[in-house]
Design a protein that fits this description.
By secondary structure, this protein is of the alpha+beta class. The chain folds into 2 domains: 101 residues, Phosphorylase Kinase, domain 1 (2-Layer Sandwich), CATH 3.30.200.20; 131 residues, Orthogonal Bundle (Transferase(Phosphotransferase), domain 1), CATH 1.10.510.10. Helices cover 31% and strands 19% of the residues. Strands 4-1-5-7-6 form a 5-stranded antiparallel beta sheet, with no helix packed on it. The protein is globular.
């Protein structure tokens, strides 16, 4: 992830490529003065550019395409938006995908890790999570990877849900049993029905993740920090 200033022309009319922390960002002439922000860095910038290199494996390509297709359709205050997808001149030159998004200065993981949240902050963050999730579920989409690091924040305490690479459409009028997999959601936020009955879960798996996130905001530590599959179940059932 990098930040950039938006302008009409770049510093080099012949090329828009810039080197950021050893990674080449070939984003064309519109964006320049790129700088690395990582997770949780602050800066007076206009946009964030997410670089995806998905073409090493078909699964990564599918996840990248799924995320782009979903986010292009979603328009909600509590869901990260896509401002632009930077296009390459030809398909032969397409080695990476660059997605331009609003910059959110940090995420909930970083915030909980560094400070104790007030009850007002917890209530406001939870409200925004559930508000965004209601919109997602109303479109019959399961996020399947809700966790603090996928909840972006800015200095005004606005929250946006991001990372839809594992999301799936779950139309109640169709049988998706054969397409639902167990390996979704980060372990600590994974609902028990995913581990015990991987082909029969519903939107409730996202609600479980929200409950785990709420407990973490209240205690400043994960509620079910399992080290592996069985240990995770022991934490939940114990």
């Amino acid at each position: 992830m990098a930040t950039a200033a938006s302008a009409g022309s770049g510093p080099d009319p012949g090329s828009g490529a810039e080197l950021v922390r050893g990674q080449v960002f070939d984003v064309g002439p519109r964006y320049h003065n790129l700088s690395y922000i990582g997770e949780g860095a602050y800066g007076m910038v206009r946009v964030a550019i997410k670089k995806i290199s998905p073409f090493e494996h078909q699964t990564y390509c599918q996840r990248a395409l799924r995320e782009i297709k979903i986010l292009l359709r979603f328009k909600h205050e509590n869901i990260i938006n896509i401002k632009e997808i930077i296009r390459v001149p030809s398909i032969d030159q397409m080695k990476d995908v660059y997605i331009v998004q609003d910059l959110m200065e940090t995420d909930l993981y970083k915030l909980v890790k560094t400070q104790h949240l007030s009850n007002d902050h917890i209530c406001y963050f939870l409200y925004q999570i559930l508000r965004g999730l209601k919109y997602i579920h109303s479109a019959n989409v399961l996020h399947r990877d809700l966790k603090p690091s996928n909840l972006l924040l800015n200095t005004a305490c606005d929250l946006k849900i991001c990372d839809f690479g594992l999301a799936r459409v779950a139309d109640p009028d169709h049988d998706h049993t054969g397409f639902l997999t167990e390996y979704v959601a980060t372990r600590w936020y994974r609902a028990p029905e995913i581990m015990l009955n991987s082909k029969g879960y519903t939107k409730s798996i996202d609600i479980w993740s929200v409950g785990c996130i709420l407990a973490e905001m209240l205690s400043n530590r994960p509620i079910f920090p399992g080290k592996h599959y069985l240990d995770q179940l022991n934490h939940i059932l114990g």
